[in-house]
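Re-run with default settings, no changes from the original entry. Doing this only to confirm the output is reproducible before filing.
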Amino acid sequence: MCEEYARAHGLLYNAQKSELLVFKTRGRTLGNVAPVLFNGVALRRVSEFKYLGHIVTEDLNDDSDIERERRAMAVRCNMLARRFARCSIDVKITLFKAFCQGLCTCNLWVSYTQRAINALRVQYNNAFRVLVGLPRYCSASAMFVHAHTDGFYRRRIASLMLRARGSANTILGVLSHKLDSPFCGTGFKHRCMYLGPR
């Protein structure tokens, strides 16, 4: 289909840069997959692929993408801490909000281990500590409250909850305003209370 489309529209695909990803079904993987040819070249089979910045794996697990985001956050924070070491605390907090709070594609994470998400949370907290010069073992919740900045979990669920509360769909609106609803979930009930209007 790709070859026919390319011929019809005068396009040229690079078969050397194209790869084949076969998704597992219910924990099973297909070992004997026939070669897929593209312009006469057999595509190289991979277990993961980076698509629009998001890492997609054959088992649809998001741990690799969470690790990518954790490393990127560490790089951004270290760069900010070096370049803006002499700036005021207010400037550093603004820089943290601009460069470290944007968890790209985090709304796509649905299948991950607690270990992976905890590693990202620790990196998020440490990034803020390093940037503003706080000791390593100070309270994370206290430092974010004092700086009027979203903590890790609030940042992850705030956009989802605010979009649900502003939705024209009445069912979503009712569920998102009930703290005991399945929408909030038992693990988020205490955090949902702080998601008021912004």
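The two ends are 48 Å apart (CA to CA). The CA atoms of residues 36 and 42 lie 6 Å apart.
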